[in-house]
Amino acid sequence: MRLTTLVLAFLLSCTHSIWAKETNVLLFSIDSCRADRFGVYGYQKGTTPNIDAWARTGTVFSHAYSVSAWTAPGLVSILSGLYPPTHGINNRDQMGSPDLVTLPKIFREKGYRVPNLNFFTFAPYYLNLGLGEIAKDYFGSIEESTLLNWLEKNLGTDTQSPFFLWFHTTIVHQPYRPAPEALPDTRENLEKSPGIKAVLSGAIVPYGSTKFVDEDRAILDLLYDEEIRRVDRFFGDVLELLKKSGELQNTLIILTADHGEELLDHGFVGHASTSLRAKLYEELIRIPLIISWPETVPAGRVVNAPVSQIDIFPTVTRLLGAQPKSPVAGVDLFSPIPKRSLFFESVIAGNQTPKNREKEWVRAIRKGRFKYISTGEVYDLESDPGEKTNTADTHPELTRALDQELNGWLVETGELRTSSFSRVPQAVQHTRKDSCPRIFTPGNGSTLDYDVHTGALLFDWSGDMSTAYLIQYDIGEGDHHVEGRYEIEGNHQIMGPLPRELWHDLKAWNPFKIRISPQGTEPCWSDWVTFYF
């Protein structure tokens, strides 16, 4: 079925629904999360007892896919129902159109409470999604406390409106931080392996920067599984608060992920933004997707048809009776799911992609049992689910047909973006030298302390609130180096509050340098400011 046909079908399907006004929505997404580490997906190591028990009250999608191998494209696809080439968040430092229709915007318009509890949403990718200001009053020293604090303070108040609550947990993302008692040996001994030391120490492990040996595989599995267990305990605490408040029966819950994670399945670890080498094998794009809503969503059901992140938006809006007048590429998962191809893409190094590599892409298509990757690979997922035998040479006609369909999808999704989103963030033009800004905060040469700054990073400069500025950054050295620029309106930006453990991890990226210029035809840059964590 062509993309445009799916878009029209969804728009027509929404015309006879009634808005379910009093229903809460919890969208719980997990960073870097493989589906095959959940008991409900067949894993036998007891990693997810809380999720498994809850999943029996809802519907499990056994073959759910991300659209990409890094965070921002996947999350925006979840919130918009669109593929990345259409919503436009598929490369470094991009900002979506103000016209993009998202779940937060829809629920805010319906009078829902829509708190923004995600510390990372200061990044340009998330600025036009309708998320609002980060609700930093709820942030604590560990990641779990943010969502739990909000629930404890806001559940059980009959006079308040329902909520749409999206929380994205980064617990499973590198570096791995299991409790010392969960480790199979002392950290000192474990770090004698260069590969294990890398995943314990930093968020970025560039492809080829370290070596893994056969003995590392079991340790990697244990480290990753312990992080999954921590997420499961967290999710169990969330369910318990909903149950105690009496809101569990009245809450639509969606659990999913932004993308998966490689654990030596194809020779290395991580994903596009951590290994700096994008791949689109199953371990990187197969994700969990479980949906529950008592007495509405079928309980104990397993759907085996391949589905995608882009289906979450139309499923949620259809269940609650919303009528978004916007293009949507996904389908309602509780209506008959059509036979269709699914598509995937990733820029070469995800969020870390340097300017000179922004045109390096990996793309893929799954059509029935076959999967084609633009690196010249074809796999039969029924007979070869681990993607170990490339059959492109033995199936040349299939390879050409899938490549042609993939290229057609790229053109069609780009055309849908052009026809749907005419507005882009408007920049105020400045060319006079006397408008060059001066950075007040952070101070040049300063070292930022978590407790002093309460976990938040403030950029503050001379200028006005109605001007668009460019922030250029140059961060770190060697393998831990990234540079780029992004646009922001106004004369300050607050990032965070960040979890204490993430603040600590940022030390590996020292030094941090920024400079700022009004957006315009002739840049007028401030002096560089260098600071440290």
Tags for this model:
alpha+beta, single chain, globular, six-stranded mixed β-sheet, 533 residues
Helix content: 25-40%
Shape: globular
Number of strands: 23
Task: Report the sheet with the most strands, covering strand number, pairing sense and barrel closure.
Answer: 6 strands, mixed
Low-pLDDT stretches are 1-18, 425-434
Assembly annotation: single chain
Protein architecture, described:
By secondary structure, this protein is α+β, with helices and mostly antiparallel strands. 26% of the residues lie in helices and 20% in strands. The chain has 14 helices and 23 strands. It has helices at 3-13, 49-55, 71-80, 84-87, 103-109, 143-154, 187-190, 194-201, 216-245, 272-275, 282-285, 312-320, 396-420, 500-505; strands at residues 24-30, 59-61, 64-65, 164-169, 251-257, 262-263, 269-270, 286-287, 290-292, 301-303, 307-308, 342-347, 361-367, 370-373, 377-380, 439-441, 446-447, 457-461, 468-477, 480-489, 492-495, 512-518, 529-532. A 6-stranded mixed beta sheet has the order 4-1-5-9-2-10, sandwiched between helices. The longest helix is centred in the middle third of the chain and has 30 residues, at 216-245. 45% of the residues are buried. Mean pLDDT is 90; it is low at 1-18 and 425-434.
Give a concise summary.
With 533 residues, this protein is α+β, with helices and mostly antiparallel strands. The protein is built from 14 helices and 23 strands.
Topology (elements, then pairings):
Blueprint: H1 3-13, E1 24-30, H2 49-55, E2 59-61, E3 64-65, H3 71-80, H4 84-87, H5 103-109, H6 143-154, E4 164-169, H7 187-190, H8 194-201, H9 216-245, E5 251-257, E6 262-263, E7 269-270, H10 272-275, H11 282-285, E8 286-287, E9 290-292, E10 301-303, E11 307-308, H12 312-320, E12 342-347, E13 361-367, E14 370-373, E15 377-380, H13 396-420, E16 439-441, E17 446-447, E18 457-461, E19 468-477, E20 480-489, E21 492-495, H14 500-505, E22 512-518, E23 529-532
Parallel strand pairs: 1-4, 1-5, 2-10, 3-11, 17-23
Antiparallel strand pairs: 2-9, 3-8, 5-9, 6-7, 12-13, 13-14, 14-15, 16-18, 18-21, 19-20, 19-22, 22-23
Helix pairs in contact: 2-9, 6-9
